[in-house]
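SUBJECT: A protein chain and its fold
Encoding: whole-number codes for local backbone shapes
RECORD BEGINS BELOW THIS LINE
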Amino acid sequence: MVPPRRGPEFFMNETGVAAGWRQRAGRAEPCMPLSEPRSSSSSRGRPCERPQRLCLSLPRQVPQDRPLNEPAMEGAQPGPGASSPQSDSAEVLLHGVFALRGAAPQTSYALSLTRSRELRVQRVGPAPAGPGAALKLADCIGCVAGREPPPEQAAYFSVFCYPFRRGWWDASPSRQRLARTFRVCVAREAEGNLKLAETWAGKIRELAAPRIPRQEERPNHARELVRAGDLSQWDAVAVLAGDGLLYEVVNGLMERHDWQAAIKKPLCTLPGGSGNALAASINHYAGNTQAFRKELLTNCTYFLCKGLYAPMDLVSLNTASGKRLFSFLSFGWGFISDVDIASEKYRQLGKARFTVGTIQQLAGLKVYKGRLSYLPVETSSSVSSAPGSPSEQNSHHVPCSNGHPLHILPQPAPGAPEPPHEGSWPEDPLLVPFDQPVPKHWTIVPEEEFISIFAIYQSHVGADFPMAPKAKLHDGSMHLFYLKAGVSRLGLLRIFLAMEKGTHLDLNCPHLHYIPVRAFRLEPFASTGLMTVDGELLACEPVQGQVHNQLCRIISSS
């Protein structure tokens, strides 16, 4: 227990707190005090006197005369009492002793802000102290500081939290709004009091921000974070970057031991790269006009604020070397992949990098030799409809219309039971080992010379390239395009110019073929050319993949 002090005492240890995605703690509300702290008539107009005074604004459910440190206090968990800063200065960041307005005379409260992201509260004074309480800043959504109206010299800071709490009528805990307003009256000048209040408010905001790095520090860093991190405190995973970083996040989730529950965590893409194909696709599915840069970011942020999400297909890709990857956007080999990778050096140009890359690749047009096989959607539908077929046995998704939100954030409260972990990745019933030929009901393309092969599962391959305008988030198919050798450079340029408007199929180019498929296999005759998965480089080798319908969830429009 901390003894009463005549004067104010506080200290702050220097600490580095990394900012990151913030937890959505219930419905967002403005970070404003519930009401202006009122001062009693006896103290109005007089300079601040020691000891410090504290004004506590409690919810209606908690009587004002209830001691602050009672375990029944809403949003507080029984915790260690506030200790003096000298006893555990490595743990305590800020410490102060305050008087509680409205409480019994000579009663004060010691507040300690700790590195463990808690605001500890302990009653001190002549009356016996209770066990103390701790407000968890992980449940904090904001903290503001301000001055009381003149002639008062005091200041205040208000903390706003949404902790989980169970009422006697509740079957399960739910988040309840909790606000605390502390009156700061340290110095005789208003500026000194406001500075101290802002110090507390600023440090609380830092500790309330989740300790996640602001940006990816190295390749596959995001993949490592989500693979090993504790996801239970998050309602969704928002990625402010291009499509490549989201590809890392998806594969990191699928590499977890609890991947079945982790991959159901709603994902959100906020465009911050040069391609932003998934963000453009989601904007397209919402019925919005084509958008770029800030406008596209604004639209995607609006979807995140609404908190609605819908299912999205993933494609399982297997390579001859034994790798297994999960893709949400595309797989490519040849011209389009060459443009994507070769234009990396022009990333500072934004989406104009693809135009520069296209011109360069046209000058040195290449032909790639290999065998392409695929399972058309129509054929797979008739085969899978047979009773006891593999696809029927492995299907556990319920079809629904595209973009229709199935759920609303937030997720269930912590402690809710998670789906059982089966310990294995989803099977690929449509695929066979590479040393076996594809099934007889598959189609094998007779030509073996290609300019480009590209399978896309969303509508856009870039912010301004609607390659498959009719695609859906969860239509259960890949939209396979392949361009046979023999097309002229001028004809290829016309195709790409038309692709900006989504009219490339209207050209009726005899070299360009399009077919919706459930699965495919690509077997290059030589390890030449570049392969890409969601815009990321992949070694050139035999690859096959199939769609997994509605395997993950993505923040989308209503």
User: Anything to note?
Assistant: The first helix runs from residue 190 to 208. Residues 1-46, 49-87, 384-422 have pLDDT under 50 and may be disordered.
